[in-house]
Amino acid sequence: MALAGDMAKGRLAIIAGSGLLPSHVATAARQAGENPFIVALKDEADRSWEGFDHAVIGVGDFAALNRIFASNGIDRVVMSGAVRRRPEWREVRPTLKTLVKLPSTIRTLLAGGDDTVLRMVITLIEENGRRVVGAHEIAPDLLASVGPLGALQPSADDTKDIIRAAEAADALGRLDVGQGSVSVGGRIVALEGVEGTDSMLERVANLRSAGRISARRRGVLVKLCKPQQDIRADLPSIGISTIENLRQAGLAGVAVEAGRSLILERDAVIKAADEAGIFVCGLDRGLRSWGLA
Amino acid sequence: MALAGDMAKGRLAIIAGSGLLPSHVATAARQAGENPFIVALKDEADRSWEGFDHAVIGVGDFAALNRIFASNGIDRVVMSGAVRRRPEWREVRPTLKTLVKLPSTIRTLLAGGDDTVLRMVITLIEENGRRVVGAHEIAPDLLASVGPLGALQPSADDTKDIIRAAEAADALGRLDVGQGSVSVGGRIVALEGVEGTDSMLERVANLRSAGRISARRRGVLVKLCKPQQDIRADLPSIGISTIENLRQAGLAGVAVEAGRSLILERDAVIKAADEAGIFVCGLDRGLRSWGLA
């Protein structure tokens, strides 16, 4: 995190997908004295980047990415935000180096698990001489810490649900499928696939109102980093919308992995969670305790 | 499956949840010379049982279930169809024997994984002197066999998806979460939770039309029996609606576990699958080959 030393060498680029994270990272980078260049991904980045030097490129357009890096003196790159679409074959514009590796590289980009794809992108960027750094290295305040964040703590029943959901999320992560899982009264009711956390919580709300999940047991959401994932990309994150969706799904709270998850708009999250009677909790990795024992 | 011998002893009861399976089992039972008594579960069973001796009871009403068994000379019980709702606490009417085990029994019924709950129900029935038999013992023609069912076979790409989805479904089953998984181009895009296969396929269709799943790779659904489950309850099953949902989700086909999955309306399923260009395939258990090597 010795940014000052790095700054002498070159400029920071932030590759921006969808969601709030890219803005938070960009703001944090400025506060740390950086002058970030934003590479917004077409059809993914969903905010205006007025006020920042920026360019828009298609997902999979490595040729454009390298041109931008070269012409702006970029030496470090942060990947932030969600990338929901995978590029279609015709959209991948390889550089010479990626061409050498065809077709396995391209096949991975089109159809690998999220984690596989992100590792591949990191490799492609680093092979061209830039260093990929994690969003949490630029904005360390976003990292979740161990223990309750707001006024509420998980109850004994919630703790059982946390352990059960963590077990399921861990298995899910090992399969490179997703990061989130919901347990209600000891029963796993939903696992997160491509749809993402918000859609999964919507599903839980619907199952609840259809009477297919107990109305008397609240339950919890757990989000974990995939065991094998590169933490420089795609750390689990929660924000205001997570709290609102938890409320609508009737859940008691959310537990995220401490040190490997991001909490966006922390103050607003705490306020919303306290008002809704929802706990937000950081879990210590180490399956034996999860910081709960 | 020596039904003739059993028949001398007593009558067969079919506990009927939702879906088509209970009808198929009841018809098959009659064809085998049985005179089944149908116990339709309130708010679950979704067809008329005119033409069969039947009664309707609430899910969790063990007292009523035992009265019905006793007054109709029931000695064997088949559990068939889906039970989507879990009983709420006030709906569980225990018998004396279940009362002895409170509160752990009740807690399991209210909130255990599906498999845990079904084992518990089987134990409760068998403790009262009846034998629980599998739907496939009454209607063995419903069981899936190894290999393609209709005109189409999985391609090489489909086979890779089958292996990937089978791996995920196996992990899902070990967690007692669900039986189904969808892989598209080697990437797991959805796992089945409480929502069931039809809802999961609807989700895949939506993700596909939103461009979040490749439009150029078809993908497959795999349904497996949970490794630890009692095969007398809740075998994975597919029917006409599965084929229609596969088509809408743009999937190439479905693979189910041979010998431990049920195919309802087999002729109609084959016809619909052939017309839609969809394969239906039985997999040999034994993760090494899945009958594909």
Number-wise, the strands of chain A total 13
Poorly predicted runs of chain A are 1-7, 287-293
Number of domains of chain A: 2
Quickly give the structural class of chain A: alpha/beta
Here the CATH topology of the largest domain in chain A equals: Cytidine Deaminase, domain 2
The CATH top-level class label of the largest domain in chain A:
Alpha Beta
Number of helices of chain A: 11
Instruction: Characterize the biggest β-sheet of chain A.
Output: 6 strands, mixed
Largest sheet, spatial ordering of strands of chain A: 6-13-11-9-7-8
Q: Output the CATH homologous superfamily of the largest domain in chain A.
A: LpxI C-terminal catalytic domain
- What general outline of chain A do the C-alpha atoms trace? elongated
Distance between the termini of chain A: 32 Å
Helix content of chain A: 25-40%
- What gyration radius of chain A follows from the Cα positions, in whole Å? 20 Å
The CATH architecture designation of the largest domain in chain A is: 3-Layer(aba) Sandwich
* β-sheet strand percentage of chain A: 15-25%
Question: Most extensive interface: pair and counts?
Answer: A-B, 40 and 40 residues
Mean pLDDT of chain A: 84
Question: What string gives the helices and strands of chain A in order?
Answer: HEHEEHEHHHEHEHEEHEEHEEHE
Which assembly state applies to the chains in this document?
homodimer
Protein name (chains A, B): UDP-2,3-diacylglucosamine pyrophosphatase LpxI
InterPro entries (chains A, B): LpxI, LpxI_C, LpxI_C_sf, LpxI_N
Organism (chains A, B): Rhizobium tibeticum
Pfam families (chains A, B): LpxI_C, LpxI_N
